[in-house]
Structures are given as structure tokens and as C-alpha cells.
TrEMBL record:
PANTHER family: LIPL45-RELATED LIPOPROTEIN-RELATED (PTHR38731). Residues 76-123 form the LysM domain. It comes from Leptospira biflexa serovar Patoc (strain Patoc 1 / ATCC 23582 / Paris). It comes from the Bacteria. SUPFAM superfamilies: LysM domain (SSF54106). This is LysM domain-containing protein. It holds the Pfam family LysM.
Length: 306
């Protein structure tokens, strides 16, 4: 084996980052030039120190990895990908980048530098992200696209199924569905509708629903504070800030939005213009234009509480 092959050997045996060893290798190369004919002696010293380091640091790390056996029914196991940091992993799977220390503790890892691409990490259910909403009921054909789980195909929805940020729900012909957020907000979508779940950008910001197409009825509980935003409903042409109300939003195939308010009030914004739609009124937003002045609407439909 050549002396130049030792850095590769080190990176193979040691769990530490390769950049550390590159620096160490540069140091050795710089000093071996000064020794000239003393290179064989330096090689022997280097090998002795290498074997000692692997014995002291490499073996315990491997043994610890082998003795930890997580319960497969109490969480999921992921493979660390290149470029992923502990903060990114915690944000992706725990919804909080600050939980990386708890993640290390659950995997019985003391040193964060031991996290390298290709290794397995266990995500316990107790630390896992909580769903934004649950699919409470549906009729006909309702499908769910679990973007949160990196699924690319639509699948039949299940009663009680958790819906996470980025997940999508759609109803086909002669189908309806109802989902309830953890905040208590209830939504009913009619046939040929398509919605996307979104989490608030910060802890103080409300959760969101994006209505891509179709019709949705929103039943939002009243907020404790008059200035508190309880929910945000977005469409391709408008944005609705909700503070506790009952309203229906419809999006046609051209992306135009109609909002009818039956209780409370909704602030509808588009093209830097905002109109306040009070109980018994509606507004229409053509894509790329400002909302129309609110106009009266008929009586509201009866909520389906089944």
C-alpha cells in the first residue's frame, strides 16, 4: 500500500468528516518534505498512530451503532442524504429545526459530527410532526396525494387519515369530502375540487388552505382576540384572511374566485386591493384584477355535520 493511500483508509475507518482528514493529510505532506530521507520512519509513526486512533475511536462508534435497535412500530427509519444537516432533517420530519438534539438523543448519538450521508436515523413517533388536519368523512371518490411522504401518485383517501403540509386532496365527480384542522376549523369540498394544505410560515401565523379548483365551505371558530388571524385561504387570484366565520369560496377553470360570506367577515385581497366582505355579502375576483365591491348573496346552505 502506498503512503498516499492512507487518507482514503482513514476516511473509510473513521466516522469523522473527511474534511478533517484532508487538513491532517496536508499537514503530514508538508512536514514529510522537510524530513527527506527520514520518510520511512515517519511512515512507521504514522501507521502506529493510525491504528491506535482506529482502535480507540472507530470500534466504539461501530459497536454503539450495532447495539441500538429501535422499535420499527414506534417510528420510521430514514437514510441521511448528501447535503442534509441535522437542522434540515429536523425541519423536514419534525417540523422544527431546533429538535435536532432530541433526534440525536433518540438515536443514542452523542456527537453530531457522526451524522454522515448513507447512515440510518430513527424518527420516533413521539418526536414526529403532527398532522395539520384529518380527513373526517367523504362520499364518492376522494383521493389524497401525500407530498409530505414523497409520494408521486394519488391514492384513495381513508377516514381519519392525517393530512400534513403540502399534502393535496381532490374529489372526483359526484364526490364530497370534509376535513378538520387541529385548530377546529372545518372544511367541506364538493365534487371536482382540489385543495392543498399549508402550514403557517411561523408559529404566530395561521395555517393555510390553497383552493386550486372547485368549491369549498369554510367553518372557522371565532378567535379569542379580534385581531387574531384564525385562517388563511388562498386561490390563484385572491387571498382571504379569516377571523372566525362561515363562508364559501369557488374557483372556476380560469382561476377566477367568488367568495360568499354567511357569518362574520372575510378580508379578500388581490392586486394590492382589499375589500371587507361582511355577513350576507359576496365578492368576485377575476384573475389579475382587484376584488369587486361586495354585493348581497342568498341565504347560506345548511352545514353537513354528519
Amino acid at each position: 500500500m502506498r503512503f498516499a493511500d492512507f487518507p482514503y483508509l482513514i476516511s473509510t475507518f473513521s466516522p469523522r468528516k473527511e474534511t478533517v482528514w484532508n487538513s491532517f493529510w496536508d499537514f503530514c505532506c508538508t512536514h514529510t518534505k522537510a524530513f527527506g530521507q527520514k520518510l520511512p520512519k515517519l511512515q512507521r509513526l504514522f501507521l502506529v498512530n493510525l491504528l491506535l486512533f482506529v482502535f480507540v475511536f472507530g470500534i466504539p462508534a461501530e459497536s454503539k451503532k450495532q447495539t441500538f435497535q429501535p422499535n420499527p412500530d414506534d417510528g420510521i427509519t430514514i437514510i441521511v442524504e448528501k447535503g442534509q444537516t441535522l437542522s434540515i432533517i429536523s425541519k423536514t420530519y419534525l417540523d422544527d429545526p431546533r429538535k435536532w438534539k432530541e433526534l440525536l438523543k433518540s438515536n443514542q448519538i452523542d456527537n453530531p459530527n457522526l451524522i454522515i450521508p448513507g447512515m440510518k436515523l430513527w424518527i420516533p413517533k413521539s418526536l414526529g410532526k403532527k398532522p395539520l388536519a384529518d380527513l373526517q368523512r367523504f362520499t364518492g371518490t376522494t383521493e389524497v396525494l401525500k407530498i409530505s411522504q414523497k409520494q408521486n401518485d394519488w391514492a384513495k383517501g381513508n377516514i381519519g387519515e392525517g393530512l400534513y403540509a403540502k399534502d393535496e386532496v381532490r374529489t372526483l365527480k359526484e364526490s364530497e369530502a370534509q376535513f378538520v384542522f387541529q385548530s377546529g376549523s372545518r372544511f367541506e369540498i364538493t365534487e371536482n375540487s382540489h385543495v392543498i394544505m399549508e402550514r403557517g410560515k411561523t408559529d404566530s401565523e395561521p395555517d393555510e388552505v390553497f383552493l386550486r379548483q372547485g368549491r369549498i365551505r369554510s367553518l372557522i371558530p371565532k378567535s379569542k382576540s379580534p385581531n387574531q388571524k384564525m385562517f388563511l385561504l388562498k386561490t390563484e387570484s385572491a387571498e382571504s384572511v379569516v377571523k372566525g366565520t362561515d363562508f364559501i369560496t369557488e374557483v372556476d377553470t380560469a382561476g377566477n374566485t367568488t367568495l360568499s360570506c354567511y357569518e362574520g367577515s372575510v378580508a379578500v385581497s388581490a392586486e394590492k386591493v382589499t375589500v371587507l366582505v361582511n355577513q350576507g355579502f359576496a365578492t368576485y375576483v377575476e384573475k389579475g384584477k382587484a376584488p369587486l365591491k361586495p354585493f348581497p348573496v342568498p341565504n347560506p346552505p345548511i352545514p353537513n355535520n354528519q
